[in-house]
Write a structure and sequence with these properties.
4 copies of one chain form a homotetramer. Chain A has helices at about 5-20, 75-85, 100-105, 115-120, 140-150, 175-200, 210-220; strands spanning about 25-35, 40, 55-60, 65, 90-95, 125-130, 160-165, 170-175. In chain A, helix 1 (about 5-20) packs parallel to helix 6 (about 175-200). The longest helix of chain A has 24 residues, at about 175-200. By secondary structure, chain A is of the alpha+beta class. Chain A is globular and about 50 Å long. The first copy, chain A, has one domain (about 5-220): L-fuculose-1-phosphate Aldolase. In chain A, strand 6, helix 5 and strand 7 form a beta-alpha-beta unit. Chains in contact: A-B, A-C, B-D, C-D. The interface of B and D includes residues 188, 210 and 217 of B.
């Protein structure tokens, strides 16, 4: 079932080591089929070289496995919470990519220092708090709930990624490919923000009007970047 | 029309990801044919893997599209301003290359710390101010005008690149290939300047006489670097 | 003799330059056959491109060469001490990998700043003191004894790596492949810890409860990461 | 003439971009034939992809071109001074490799922070002063004379490299291949020293007894590293 979606999720997972976002098995991509309410995710701890499209695991939104011989990614419950809360989220990626994770370990949100950031992410990339010892008992689900809680008050489409303190990065999009794309953006933005602070420790975020200009050049009714009408 | 120039501009664009200057579609190269006054530029938002020479867009210096099925790069107006102002500029490249953009985000000009810099760029690489909210209404053209305004008082051949604050880098040259070359130089120089300040926070620019020696070893009437007579 | 083990040790050594952990001959991997009490190690100073499985040297735990035309790695005595002291150690790797060695040169233990670290290493990566001038007379054996002395009071399985001050890194595991794996983890963790301190100089280690959660998600009786039962 | 030496110098030059030490034409390797007193060097400003063994230029120690259609590297006079002064120098390499050049721009000698450094370089890598305005008139020869002056008081074999302030790196060895090898060592050592100071700004050099141990493990009468007798 969902063979086409499995193939896409497989491809998305394989992009992660290609873009240098994942070492060993430290990442996972998923995508949801909104008609059936089922999502497809990478199996847990399987090496990328050995991964095949048919190894993808099919889950429902109650965290029941619907199809697949292997265990789903240990982070499946986090993906699930995002799909349950936000109908616009069609794909989710989790990585420990080097620069994004360095910010997550540092416990800091990534300020918007330039248009590379503003083209894709409207405002700072949040760094969400540690879970409490109580919350850690249901670690992966509560990680998802923390992200959901934050974006209930925000805009999950305008800020398609978040850092989890002392952990790593999540990114999302309308499908698995866009979630991978946003993971690459996040890593590049994280790297340039760190280098920018190294070059000028007193740097301030980009002017709001420039952030607006770039974000709305690519998104919304008046977008004019690229070839397609918006 | 301009098939040979299209091929050269295509090649120049393809060099950008090869040199690691461009992720996704975050860059563009163009070149002008001074006889017809037409310039050729990459289409907007097309992936590099899918780009073909025939996709290049032909523009005139009044920003009218003369040939091409696709929209030209969203930064076309910036390229256009440079061609209008400076007859010696034959090719232009825009990138968000990592280290150059980190300096642009930091809002600092890159000092000349050594001969790698001095061999190609005479003096510091300027970091141009943010546009005002009013200027942002015609963003790309005004970015070009800002660069032009700066180099009217300077020497657009001796300093073949500039940073735009909170944005990215522009470089130019006598043709598209030289503009790419100068973009690579800029990125390398930006990286070494940042690392150099990390190693010695109180570092001063290279002595002026050393800068002169290296620049004029490669440029001008008494140049003796390479195989061709100058 | 031990042809299968030689092949595995050869493969493990070849992984080191592939993962970017080794330049020239600056690294070595070994593994032990606990039945015979013999271990197999890379020959000294042989280029990786020229290495063949049959070049591996077989040693006993008294540092006598049992088979092999070439001299064993100059670090053989360090490997030997680890095998003598810890029955659970089946493979050992030594590298001068860039970030781990930078911490070793800095003389600092690597704090646990996040879950990438906690997934594999329980607590900080120790940085062992310099040998005394007296101890340097039997340099390689005493390097091993220093590591052994430290882990007699600790847990050599929960912390599968250590830094030697002003020198480099050692990592180990149940076999050569796992020792390579842990060397890659160490390098990645070392890089992210340094970047994390650059982004936030006052950063604190990850909360202990989060470290526990991640370590025991992958290790011990209640582990649930991956496909195999623990 | 000297066809074998030309081939070796060609190979050495081609190693420079492979090891990531050279962008464009920013580097050159040479080697000398002590019997004839002639040395072979890369031509000036020729792209590496287009370089052929027969393009190498043969020079004598009075800076007269003996064979070759092309101009020799603009840095030829620096190489020449080293060959004239030190009979043990058989090959010379000049690069603007990124980390070594960052130290040169910073105007600092590279302290010996660990055994990777001590294995090849006995003590710090010197950073030589800027030339005076007068000395710049004969720039390349005086660069060589400055290096020679420094090593007249030192040991050109024990310290096979030097930085030139605000410029770049020179390395040497018994032949061109060893000079390339030492250039790679220098770049790696420069990188780890910078990162080490970033991790611990108050770091001290490695203890002298450890530096001695490692240097003499590989060099001199009692060396025991590798396969060959010393």
């Amino acid at each position: 079932m969902l063979e086409e979606l499995k193939r896409k999720v497989y491809e998305a997972n394989m992009e992660l080591p290609r873009y240098g976002l994942v070492t060993f098995t430290w990442g996972n991509a998923s995508a949801i089929d909104r008609e059936t309410g089922l999502f497809v995710i990478k199996p847990s701890g399987v090496e990328y070289e050995k991964l095949r499209p048919e190894d993808m695991v099919v889950m429902d939104l109650n965290m029941k496995k619907v199809e697949g011989d292997l265990n789903p990614s240990s982070d499946t419950a986090t993906h699930c919470e995002l799909y349950r809360a936000f109908p616009s989220v069609g794909g989710v990626v989790h990585t420990h990519s080097c620069w994004a994770t360095s910010w997550a370990q540092a416990g800091r949100a990534i300020p918007c220092y330039g248009t590379t950031h503003a083209d894709y992410i409207y405002g700072e990339v949040p760094c969400l708090r540690n879970l409490t010892e109580e919350e850690l008992k249901d670690y992966e689900a509560n990680t998802g709930k923390l992200i959901v809680e934050y974006f209930r008050k925000g805009d999950v489409e305008a800020v398609p990624c978040a850092l989890c303190k002392n952990h790593g990065a999540f990114a999302w999009g309308k499908d698995a490919a866009e979630a991978v794309h946003n993971s690459v953006v996040l890593e590049e933005v994280a790297r340039m923000a760190a280098q920018c602070e190294m070059i000028n420790p007193r740097v301030a975020p980009a002017p709001q009007c420039l952030q607006d200009k770039h974000y709305f050049r690519k998104h919304g009714a008046n977008a004019y970047y690229g070839q397609v009408s918006h």
